[in-house]
Amino acid sequence: MEIKHPVKSPSRIGTIIGMIAIISSQSILVLRLWDQRGIFYASLTVILLCLVVLLLTLYRTFFKKPTVLCLSIEQIILNGNIINSRDIKVIMTMGYFKPVIGILPYSWKIVPLDMAFRYSKDEDRGISDLKSWAKMNNVKMVNKSFQTWI
Predict the structure, then answer these.
(1) How many CB atoms lie within 10 A of CB 66?
(2) Which of 50, 112, 123, 136 measures 20 to 30 Å from 57, CA to CA?
């Protein structure tokens, strides 16, 4: 038995807005305090790091192609990764409208970037299938906020 659902990366609008705010505030510091080298270089470094995060986030949110979540007997295939049910600590669902799902493996403290997704269509059926799979494989599934890198 194999169930497939189209999924995509979660929207990261909060991260995008946050990075734009940090870049803007640091840019003001760079322009006003260009004669103080320590602050100038520190702010420039922050701007460059935030630009990298912003570009990665924009790519994952708007340009990364949807993929397929495949639920098999004792494993999940997501973004080309095979995740065995015995390696999953918990599956978390965050949000009500367009919920984001995160799969937390035992060896991780936060959800890996490639293991967070939202359904492209028919979320209710997708979540129902995932709950059935989790119950069948003795994997805990909870409604809880979670963090990922970026």
Answers:
(1) 13
(2) 123
| Strand residue runs (E) in the chain | 3-8, 67-71, 75-78, 81-84, 88-94, 100-105, 116-119, 141-143
Q: What phi-psi label fits residue 99: left (phi over 0), alpha (psi between -120 and 50 degrees) or beta?
A: beta
Write out the DSSP string of 111-138.
B-GGGEEEESS-HHHHHHHHHHHHHHTT
Both structure tokens of 115: 């293991």
**Encoding tokens for residue 148?**
């990922």
Query: CA 73 from chain center: how many Å?
Result: 25
Contacts of 20 (CB under 8 A, 6+ apart): 54
pTM: 0.82
Q: What is the pLDDT along the chain (150 residues), one digit of tens a residue?
A: 689 999 998 888 888 999 999 999 999 888 888 788 888 888 899 999 999 999 999 998 888 888 999 999 889 999 888 999 999 999 999 988 889 999 999 989 999 988 999 998 888 899 999 999 999 999 999 999 888 877
